[in-house]
Amino acid sequence: MAPRIAGVSLTDFGKHPERSSRELFTEAAGGALADAGVQADDVGVVYVGNFAGDLTEDQGHFGPMMADYMGARDVAATRVENACASGGVAVRQAVEAVASGMHEVAVAGGVEMMHNVGIADITDALANAGDNEYENEVGLTFPGIYALMARRYLHEFDAEHEHLAAVTVKNRENALDNPIAQFREPVTVAEALEGRPIASPLTLYDACPITDGAAAVVVTSEEFADEHGLDAPVRVAGTGQSSDTIALQDRPELARTRAAERAADEAYEYAGVGPGDVDVAEVHDCFTIAEVLAVESLGFFERGEGYRGAAEGETTVDGSIPVNTSGGLIAKGHPVGATGAAQVAELTKQLEGRHANQVADSTVGVAHNVGGSGASAVVTVLRSA
Amino acid sequence: MAPRIAGVSLTDFGKHPERSSRELFTEAAGGALADAGVQADDVGVVYVGNFAGDLTEDQGHFGPMMADYMGARDVAATRVENACASGGVAVRQAVEAVASGMHEVAVAGGVEMMHNVGIADITDALANAGDNEYENEVGLTFPGIYALMARRYLHEFDAEHEHLAAVTVKNRENALDNPIAQFREPVTVAEALEGRPIASPLTLYDACPITDGAAAVVVTSEEFADEHGLDAPVRVAGTGQSSDTIALQDRPELARTRAAERAADEAYEYAGVGPGDVDVAEVHDCFTIAEVLAVESLGFFERGEGYRGAAEGETTVDGSIPVNTSGGLIAKGHPVGATGAAQVAELTKQLEGRHANQVADSTVGVAHNVGGSGASAVVTVLRSA
Lengths: 385, 385
Prior knowledge:
2 copies of one chain form a homodimer.
Chain A: E1 4-10, H1 21-36, E2 45-49, H2 53-56, H3 62-69, E3 76-81, H4 86-99, E4 105-112, H5 119-126, H6 142-156, H7 161-175, H8 189-193, E5 197-199, E6 202-203, E7 213-220, H9 222-227, E8 234-243, H10 258-271, E9 280-282, H11 288-297, H12 308-311, H13 328-332, H14 339-351, E10 364-371, E11 376-384
Parallel strand pairs in A: 2-3, 2-4, 9-10
Antiparallel strand pairs in A: 1-7, 4-7, 5-6, 8-11, 10-11
């Protein structure tokens, strides 16, 4: 009954001012269909994650546009938007569409063009993921929001900025062999700590870059995969989604992402697994502190202990629970609407044993995709058959 | 098995510069829950239709924000965007979430704030529903797009502008007793024809107004409705969604909306009914020509005959197939992301016998919601038990 991930594809992540979102998305969707060995004619529904197309390209209505350009003009096609979790929610919608029996083949993906406006404009656009009335309007954009979360975490627990910097060092290291990653150069803890300050205590190295890119996955029913002889050993064993207040100030604890905890609980229960069963994870490290909160939300570490993950080598590719073997958002890049689908694509490659930064003997993978400061969260559990 | 529409609510449609989308949506969602007799705690998933919040309010990420403000903070909450069909797609997603057994109670709705930016800016924002590269960039915004469709229709078939004006006259008449309608004054055919030209042959009276407003519906499973003794006689008998090219120029016929035809076929088949079984319809009359194309797409009239509907009295409230008894987009107003949910709300009132402009003996209702120039279309068939 569990839907299969039959094919995946990612475009190059980076700066693509000469391209458009329809071009990038079509490349990813076409690549995923080719990877799956599925024809566009077989697609029944398309979900596209995109956050800021209205602001960066004067373009909304991505659903039918992308369906048409990928060769599936006549199908139901919808854009979903949960800020930086849009891609993960697109995958979840596709999984539900297939799991429910309503469709046999779904394409889910996402795309974001971010370099065709200036840095001030894209920072402003991203701020729309927060609470405009209580955050953006008073000047609180995302570097500041995550700096507040980091400052509170460092105050509350026995962690230092060095522990956060270790996340960047690990993720840069992981991206060295990822052909689509935006940053493929190592950094040291000292370099990361001495980076240009963006919002104290965070430096530029604590933040993910601005990225153009797209990713897509093909989700099919088990029956379709079997009937068509698809090589699709990875199945979606569980999915969970939850919400929290959009404004950080409305939450009882700043250094905690409860929506992600609930989404993880739901996904684990659905899949019949626990944190100890997970072999590899892709988590939403838009800032270093976000990865620390993520590994706690996913239950890999107790509350207040997640900062040990990268610093003590437990989340490296040969550690006890490898996290962001793709390089994560920090090194691979973060094309907002695409990120959640990119995580599922990277994990699928891991579970199929064809990842550039392969984890040995991995059968259970978890993707953790967050929107805003944690107002949206979606968690997906994958398992190789 | 068919999900029930347990409660509905609409805010006042018009100019609300002193309010915000969260306030309007919360009013609609709270109203729908109260109408249903369902607590916010019972809600399992929320779908919010919104098109241009990023441009009009510097606000995206409507899913969790609206879930929180309506009192359902912990649930999966997602914004869906299919341009002017966003609200109808939100309802469809809620119906699928309940029909699949994944959730017992879903809230679907939509909201749009359109008066807090100027008329040039909102026209520009709406143009994002078209193809930016091939339409918007060369100055083709929606009045021009629908004027092209109207001009082609009048050229191809035996229709005159008077036939289009009859749609406005009917819909203005229908709105006279609708307490939430934006325009509650009658117009004559002569007045409509003499209106200010906006894009030849269309005058201002051929177009719907710019509207602030919200609408929401509560969708529950049959079991939930029965167990909780809800007074919910209306069920969703069928739903269909399809797509077309985003650019008008890429279609073989300009005066035809094929995505709507496909969505209607799918919804009718799902419901086991045909056009002849329909007692009342709410259709997407963003411009007069759009209602003419809609009644053809829904199979109420043959191709090239839809213009007779309003002009010959067949689509009036006491005609053979009453269309837009609420006043439609032209008189009730068109808060873009809310419109599809508003249609379902109005139809539910008709099928429950509590509409201000009641059609006698109506048991089957159809909602037809279109995005852009027809690139997205969603059709919903309702039936009273």
